[in-house]
Structures are given as C-alpha cells and as structure tokens.
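User: Here's a chain of 403 residues. Predict its fold as tokens.
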Amino acid sequence: MPLDPASPQFLDELVDLRRRLHAIPEVGLHLPATQRIVIDALAGLDLEVTVGTATSSVVAVLRGGRPGPVVLLRGDMDGLPLVEDTNLPFASTTGAMHACGHDLHVAGLVGAARLLAAERESLPGSVVLMFQPGEEGYDGAGVMLREGVLEAAGERPIAAYGVHVGADARSGLVSTRPGTLMAAYSVLDVRVIGRGGHGSRPHQALDPVPATAEMVSALYAHVTRRYSPFDPVVLTVGELHAGSAPNIIPGQTHFRAGVRSFLPATAEALAEDLPAFVTAIGRAHGLTVEATMRTVLPATVNDEAEAAFFARTARALFGEEEYLELDDPRTGSEDFSRVLAEVPGAYGFVGATPGFDPEHPPPSNHSAQVVFDDSVLVRQAQLLAVLARRRLEQAVGEGDPGI
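Assistant: Prediction complete.
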C-alpha cells in the first residue's frame, strides 16, 4: 500500500530520526553510532543491507517487483569538528556538530526508502541507497566507490541523484543547474627553503619570509590576470607558518592555499602553473622552493539530461514557484562529484531555513549557530523517491518522459 508523505506520522518519524542523529554527530569515515541508527531505521523494509569495511558506510538495495535497471540515491552522514551554539533541545552532545545538514540528508534518504518500499511491487527495477560517511574532507564517496557501491545491485546504475539542504534559501525551494554545479578543489602546498640567521644580520642569512610574502600577494593577483573572469579561479591562502621569534630569521616557511575552479581544463592548467609560478619567485630570491598541487575533489558536474529531468520532477511535484534554476555554479565542493564522474546524474539543493529573510541572512551551513527547518524532510524524501521511480519508469518505456 502506498505511503502518504503528507501524513503527520511520516513527518514526525523523520523529524525524530533527524533529531536523534543531530544529537550524536560523528566526524570522518568512522561513524559507528550513526551507522547503527541508520540500520535500525531501515529495519523491516526488506532491503539488502551491507556495511563498509574501510568506513562506517551503509548500502541498502531495494529490489522492485518488476524487472528493470538500477538508480542510485545518496545521503551523506558525517558531521563537522565544530562545537554547537544553538541551544536547541536536541543539540549535539559529542563536541561535533551537524552544521552542514547531513542529519537531514540521512533522514530524507530513509524517508525515500520508506516511500519506495511501500510501492515495491510496481517498481520496475532496483534502487541503491548510499549512506556515505566522510564527505567533509575525507573523500568518503571515493572510498565507497572503491568498495563497490556502484555494483551493489549487480549492475551499475543508469542514473544517480542527491540533494543538499541549504541555509541560504527559503525552506522547500529546490534548485540546481545543468553542467558544472560545484567547484573542483585542489591544495597548493609550498615550502620555501632559505638559510636562517640572526635578525640583526639579515645579509648573512637567506631570508625566506619576504619571498613568501611576495608569493602570497602575487598568487592572488596572478589568478585574476591569467584566468578568464568567465571561468574564475577562487584562491585562498588559509595556512602560513614562518619562524618562532621576532629576532630569528627562519630557515624555511610553509604555506598552503585552497584553489577552486570549474572546468577540468582549468584545473589541469592550475596544477602546472601555480607550482611553477611560486618556484620562479623563489628562484629570483635565490631560494629553493618545493611546491606541489594536489587535487582533492573534481568539479561536481550534472549531466545535462539528468539535470533537466531533476528540474521537471521538482516542478511537477511542488510547482513552478518552488523551483529555481541557478545561473552560476556554487564555489563550494562536494565528493558526490566522484559518483557523477562515473554515472550520469544530478545533484541539487533544498532550502531549509525557517523564516528566511534575504535582507538579514541567517547563519550559514558550517556555522555553529545554523538551524535547519525539519519540515523540509518530507520534500527531500518525496523528491528522491520520485526521481528514482520516474527514472526507472522512463528507462522501461513507461510514463511521460516530460513528466
């Protein structure tokens, strides 16, 4: 029997699940308490459940009653190393915080699983539910790919979808865009090696500090002059270490910069250009420079057709006024990019700010004061479940491809 997502009980159960998760956030790839709660929440749905070996991941396969292909739905589970400052009655008790809304992602995906399980017999194909640890800088998606999440149902998915709640939009507003949705992220790591000495006799040393300062300033200017404003590069030197006392010239300095870009060709160019650029500045000062550029995450790129399908589905479910086509990509990064590099699919956002006022922006994702609106859990669950069902139906030639 179909499950009514409009029933108060459905929302109440998802809110209870979300709040239990919010109280016990865990960071990184190993989330044993979270994993237990997810497995318990899926109990009774007749799913094929497996857990990861390198992570606390949960993969659940829902087999439809009719033959068909496979679609993947993903929800990330990890929190942030951040002390919560919200005074919520269900606030974190662990010293970490679900400041990015991953507790809502998990509860929304569980809700989608319940909606799909209630219509299992008429479902033409299978759905892989990917509950992922380690999105916040640990490349949990990459780990799950290596552990075979795309083969969990016996064949690779034809499409993959995910949603992220946002504190920068009114509750319930769904948004995405075709093509690049979120930036690639790389880290430039630079060590500048000179010769230390006494601060009173700089001519007898080889001071790496002035050259390092020049490199930092020059990098900010360089990316605005070398790269097109229509294909921007966002660079931030967030870490810099030099010396231990004001009267000592250090022997070396070390800094790291986060670098974000949107096109693969640009990311490749940066990987060669930026290390060579700082090395040349160091050479001009007679210094040795060790510079490397490491790609952390590729850009999150929505398949054009799948992004259009995502948008049509959201409009059909919630109305034209509840969907926003984004003009520009977001400058944040997301490891669902790993999945979308392997499987055509689409990622999007659901606004989750209670009483959103653009004139007085609320605390953002990753803030210790951020608060999310529980009522969007139903919308998340519906969107994910309907994306999966209609994509399967489309693949076997059923329903209206235009929705």
